[in-house]
Amino acid sequence: MKVLHVPFCFRPDRVGGTEVYVENLAHEQLARGMQVVIAAPAADNAAYAMDGLEVRRFATGPIDGLTALYGAGDPVASATFGAILDDEQPDVVHLHAFTSAVSVRSVDEARRRGLGVVFTYHTPTVSCQRGTLLLHGREVCDGELLVQRCAECALEGLGAGRLGSQVLSRLPTVVGAACADFALGGFRLWTGVQYTHLVKTRHAAVRVMLARVQRVVVLCEWSRQLLVRNGVAAEKIVTCRHGLTFEDRPQLAATRRSSSLRVAFFGRLHPTKGADVLIRAVRQLVDVELELHVFGVEQPGDERYARRIRQLAGDDGRIVFEPAIPSEQVIPTLREFDLLGVPSQWLETGPLVVLEAFAARTPVIGSNLGGIAELVRDGVDGLLVQPGSVADWASALRRLAEDPALRERLRLNVRPPRDMRAVSEDMLSLYNDIASRSAVAAA
Fold first, then answer.
1. Each residue of 186-225: pLDDT tens digit?
2. How far apart are CA 83 and CA 77, in angstroms?
3. Pseudo-torsion of CA 386, 388, 389, 395, nearest 10°?
4. 229 φ, ψ to 5°?
5. Per-domain residue ranges of the chain
6. Fold classified for 250-413
7. Interatomic CA distance for residues 314 and 319, integer angstroms
8. In this structure, which CATH number among 3.40.30.10, 3.40.50.150, 3.30.1950.10, 3.40.50.2000 belongs to the domain 2-122+214-243+420-442?
9. Tell me, what's the pLDDT at 186?
10. pTM
């Protein structure tokens, strides 16, 4: 069995949780005797080895207008991707992204060659134009693809304002189609005029992609419900929860380092990850003995938010900004903390860092939202808090700081997470199924 994994990017680029997941899965599959290749878009074609993994990069091209960006995708990327398919001749293509570079055209390149195609829904950005599944940035959305509602929400997020977004989202899609491709980039008036057309185009592309792949893998229950709500057949969806590659060392969890509450934050310095909520909560607790260590990853475009949260921290010596650390150091580092804080403001499908905390036998205080709420057992191995409520976060932190017995009880209830071997076994079964079906169809 040979599988070609296709994430959004790959090392040495800055990577996120999806790419860490793909890398760990690829290593486990190699250990099981499978042939594995990682293929990811880049500025230019390239081939190299990364920690024992074969990596191919396929060149992308300029996008010819907004309709192409929101629709079928980049023809240059699909052509260079097709060349990799011819070189590698995998049995199965496993897509982990849906962008202009990893698009409907990419699916068609694989299907044209008779290959089985699997798609994993890793984040809300696949189907949500705003990327968070928070309607107007405030309340959880059901994720149904409705052109006017999605356009209004996304336009508000782009800076059109509440009234402007309401007006523009009510323009007929034919108006947007008639003046398509006048503007490419950030929000402009012409972009707003086109937006219902663009959202309709994007929705159509999502539906086509989901229809043409043979299986859709989801990592949590809310993703499965979203897909069913949008017409994906339940039998086409495979639930395969996240797994980790880790050494289970429960004896280390009993060691405590400090009398004060020590909280860690690991994640991107981006508003969706909510570090500002955690920092504001700590700043309210002026009389509480605690430490917050922020292990933040700053990606291009995050500079403004990163400056903002440092300003929020001010001169509070209890808040320490740490350098980002390699993924293999996250679990050992988490063993040094009483809690992991996960104040996400969007619907996570994991996140992996919660599993990493559980692998370290460290309880989690997290937003009562999405995948976090599916992983953390409130009052058992962590606490779930109203997302975005600084007062609620401060109250929960105070409770944990003042009740060492509660912290210890939560810690003792932490169970080791699912490991990547189980994920690999599930994927191999899935690959064998769709590869055999593709072979029969080709015959």
1. 445 557 778 899 999 999 999 999 999 999 999 999 999 9
2. 10
3. 70
4. -60, -25
5. 2-122+214-243+420-442, 134-201, 250-413
6. Rossmann fold (3.40.50)
7. 9
8. 3.40.50.2000
9. 46
10. 0.88
